[in-house]
């Protein structure tokens, strides 16, 4: 065989018949195959014959396409959703709202809880009430120093004192020079280091005019959240007149008032209704050789206490028994010993 010769393909492929003719051929018997051999030869041209490799798998029926699966899913979904319907009670004459009322009733549990709260309140430590103090961090001038400051600055803070019945507030008095009849005094204060501030008008003190000066009063108070220990109020004073405005700011240091917070002593809040309970356990005692005598003494003390507690009962006095000593004849004993 030359290199141009094509090798034989016999044995590498096998023929299969597809369609109805192939199935009929498999179902025929050998006798029928011989009788119809001529007919098969005539029909060879019409049969669908394919060559497939012997190692190829047997062709199988193809599965359903994605289109068929989608159609089946939509059919089931529509069939299920068609059966769902929404209806309301009022369409059938019913009520849309159903109201149920519950009546409170007394129970033993509430009584026991109330008694428990009472017993617990006897031994509960009371909450300590905070005590507030306002402390000025400046010294107001007095006497001639005050008059000199008023004549120089036209306005000055004369005094500051805690407010009555309000531990978070304080009051102050401002002395101004009587420059004009129409005048107004304002106190500008802040509690957040001048992030925000407010102007509070001061009130004129009737009868305070002494020919040269007048007095005005004001009141400032700490407010939440600035009610903790160490909170501060800073303020300055503005004096408005027809000649102009004048300021008093404690020599450019501002007037500062600090809030101090303390608590009362625990001893002042002791509960007087608390009864001292006596322990049923006896204190430990040191054991000795005379334990029996000590036990007898304790018993006698207890008996004495019970007899004193019951005056109707008389404790019998112990009687010491008479001990009779036998007489011994010494001479008789010695004579018997020698014999």
From TrEMBL:
Record Pfam families: CBM_21 (PF03370)
Domain of life: Eukaryota
Bias (Basic and acidic residues) ranges: 20-31
Cleavable signal peptide: none
Biased composition (Acidic residues): 32-47, 292-305
GO cellular component terms, A-Z: protein phosphatase type 1 complex
GO terms, molecular function: glycogen binding; protein phosphatase 1 binding
Residues in CBM21 domain copies: 149-258
Region (Disordered): 15-51, 283-318
Protein name (record): Protein phosphatase 1 regulatory subunit 3A isoform X3
Organism: Pundamilia nyererei
Source lineage: Eukaryota, Metazoa, Chordata, Craniata, Vertebrata
Gene giving rise to this polypeptide: ppp1r3f
